[in-house]
Amino acid sequence: MKKIIITTLAILITTLSFAQIIDDSHAVSKCFHNHILDKTNHNNPKQIALESKYDVKFYWLDINLERTSTTISGNVTINAVVQNAPLDTFEVELVPQLLVDSAKINGTLITAVPDSNFVYFLLSTPLAIGANFSAQIYYHGNPPSGGFFSGISHANSPSWGNEVVWTLSEPFHANDWWPCKQDLTDKADSSWVFVTTSDSNKVGSNGLLTNVVSLPNNKARYEWKSKYPIDYYLISVSIAKYVDHTIYAHPAGTTDSIMIQNYVYDNPQTLPHFQGIIDSTAQMIELYSKLYGMYPFKNEKYGHCMAPLSGGMEHQTMTTLGYFDFSLISHELGHMWWGDHVTCSSWSDIWMNEGFASYSEYLCREYLHSPADALDYLKTEHTNVMSSPGGSVYVTPANTNDENIIFDSRLSYDKGSSILHQIRFELQDDSLFFNVLKGFQVQYSYGVASGNNFKDYLNAHSSIDFTDFFNEWYIGEGYPTYHIVWNKWNDTLYFSSTQTTSSTVTPLFKMLMQYKLLSPGGDTLILEHQTANVNYFKVPTHKTITGIVVDPNDWVIDGTATVAMGIEDQTSPVCFSVFPVPCNDLLNVYFSNSPGKDVHVIVTDITGRQVLQTLAETNEISINVEGLQAGVYLVMATDGTHSITKKFVKV
Predict the structure, then answer these.
(1) What's the whole-model pTM score?
(2) Is 210 contained in some domain?
């Protein structure tokens, strides 16, 4: 999913097109906050217990809809198998605005008992574990609507004038328009979506359009069928007056072509306006098939349905989107691998969907545009991540009912994307990085996975242990900033790297860092591992060094570094750094060499008046400065022969 609130669409260069896109992107997003507050708590123990008793095998939606209204009627068949315990109560989720007319289990009528956002069906004879059953539920009503996060919506495109009804069920809004089981870990093995509507409409949905049946009274039934496993929130319909613009991709490694079926507004200007960027979808499928493995739904299709929503939603095999641009298409297409083929196992791990899809945008820019374009995209992500000091990519279970937290653009999307880039940097091997992505897709094919699953796979298939990395970057919060002090003596460059962090939740990021050593004789790139808040490095070099640039290629999320040339001899027994600066309570003093006997550390105010003193007996000491007034102080280390003085600020 990609939700756009405010955007600048540089790809669309005409004034008319820019105005049209902004119009559509604001049409829905401005009111979504009001809708989400009324949703059910999806950690309901009763619901979890009842839904755990059956495993869905097949969904068949056979419904009636028009492009003019969200009023819905029809029936849904759910084929399932009993698991864990005998089934005495069959439960589905359905909002109270939708009324159950009748229901059957294995052909026998059964009474429906509605209760809030659920409907219960009490079986006179429990079904045994392992029993297959088929439930068919007839229903009708006027679903709740309004806002981006709405199960079903109706609107006219402000840009093009077309009237549309469309669905968007993520994360838990499928029950706004059909009776279902909203459990990420229970994918149906296959699905059918049949929609009866006026024959002037077209209906887009999942899988292949197997038939369009002409019916009396100027009606038609669109019959879409998919043989691939699918999660509940990825089932969709879009209804409007569309034209079908179909193209084909030809990924390497297969002689088959992949159909890309685009349902574009039936408007003389719409397809000509977007056709160039729509046709680039084929290149993207070919690229992702190379980087991630073959397009996972190649025996059916990929496609798009237009609807006036602010962004797009990755409905399996047929994305629903408000407009076409490079960023939106590449993001939603990336979801076919990351979100649809392999789906997050809980909303806590939305990174498996949105972080990977956002990084797919970066990869498309890197491989199909230019490295410079990709770098600009990455810098924008980093800027957004660092616009606030805290927040975790991992969504705690307590927050998995809050769509604003799940779909936080700064964390789930931009930081999620950026830490994938950092994993690529840590590996220092692009071939290995993409082999990990391909292998992970194979291992969790058509299933679900968590961030921990990805960490474990990464650990098993590389020579690096990413446990600390995930604790710091995925579970942890914030980002680092570096302060470098350097000098060159003879043929050795000495520098200290002091890392401070933006959040106390994560006081240290143990990480690989790239440095550029500036020299008139040619710059040099080096790699060093930050293993503590202060590290000291020695680099042999015959070159004249004029400066150091931290993270010159923006591989990592880090604040603006400070770099200073130190005046002290790095071989001195009293050479030291202080951390943090500014300081509130504990001032840490780190000696780059083992201090000799009788090394005194003296703190004075700016006038030279001594306020604290201690003896340095190890490489690292801490001085409690909590009792000092706020201001500028000096700290001096001396052994009577050598001395170095530095400044720090008490806040």
Answers:
(1) 0.86
(2) yes
- Which residue, 476, 356, 478, is CA-closest to 418? 356
Q: What is the mean pLDDT of each run of 10 residues along the chain (651 residues)?
A: 52 33 38 38 77 97 98 98 97 98 97 96 96 98 85 96 98 97 98 98 98 98 98 98 98 94 97 98 98 98 96 98 98 98 98 98 98 97 98 97 96 98 98 98 98 98 97 98 88 90 96 97 97 90 96 97 76 82 87 78 85 89 92 86 82 85
Structural domain of residue 558, as residue ranges? 479-567
Domain end among 320, 341, 362: 341
Cis peptide before 144 (omega within 30 of 0): no
589/601 Cα distance (integer angstroms):
9
239 near 197, Cβ under 8 Å?
Answer: yes
Residue 110: which of 91, 97, 128, 94 has the closest Cα? 91
Same domain, 557 and 605: no
Q: Are 445 and 436 in contact (CB under 8 A)?
A: no
The answer as to whether 346 is a domain residue is no
> CA-CA distance, 26 to 23, in Å (whole number)?
6
Helix (H) or strand (E) holding 171: none
Residues 369 and 444 in one domain: yes
What is the token pair recorded at 304?
């798009």
Distance between CA 51 and CA 78 in Å, rounded?
Answer: 13
Beta bridge mates, 576: 591
Report the relative pairing of strands 620-624 and 586-591 from DSSP bridges.
Answer: antiparallel
Q: Which strands make up the sheet holding 87-93, listed edge to edge?
A: 87-93, 118-127, 112-115
Tokens of 635: 């700290």
Q: Which of 566, 484, 481, 558 is nearest to 517 (CA)?
A: 484
pLDDT tens, position by position, 405-458: 999 999 999 999 999 999 999 999 999 999 999 999 999 999 999 999 999 999
What is the domain count for the chain?
Answer: 4
84 and 181 belong to one structural domain:
yes
Clarify whether residues 251 and 108 are in a common domain.
Answer: yes
CATH of residue 399: 1.10.390.10
